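dumping this here so i dont lose it
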């Protein structure tokens, strides 16, 4: 039976994509939060023990996965500075592979637009 992926399932799919990239790059996970709307999704550290907050956003066509809410991000960056953490943003674009006007379905092919993890500067302007 074919059904449309829920927002939470789309978010989990995006988190799996980003989590695999973080693992491949050698980051160690301290915490993972897969609940939709809770940030950050990943708290991890690198080999030098630098802490990173990773924000994952699943975005459906025609929206651009590389755009994020700049005003919200400023408050999040403040939180990261207070925690001596750096911020990564990972926008994951998902689209039905047969018709971009249709939703993404469970167990069916999809098109992925993912430019990888983007470092977000946390310095004060």
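and the seq i came up w/
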């Amino acid at each position: 039976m074919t059904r449309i992926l829920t927002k939470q399932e789309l978010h989990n799919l995006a988190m799996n994509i980003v989590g695999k990239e973080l693992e491949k790059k050698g980051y160690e996970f301290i915490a993972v939060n897969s609940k939709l709307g809770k940030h950050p999704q990943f708290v991890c550290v690198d080999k030098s023990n630098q802490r990173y907050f990773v924000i994952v956003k699943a975005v459906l066509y025609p929206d651009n996965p590389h755009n994020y809410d700049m005003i919200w991000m400023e408050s999040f960056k403040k939180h990261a500075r207070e925690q001596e953490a750096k911020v990564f943003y990972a926008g994951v674009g998902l689209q039905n592979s047969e018709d971009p006007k249709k939703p993404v379905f469970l167990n069916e092919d999809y098109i992925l637009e993912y430019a990888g993890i983007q470092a977000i500067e946390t310095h004060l302007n």
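Residues 7-24 form the longest helix (18 residues).
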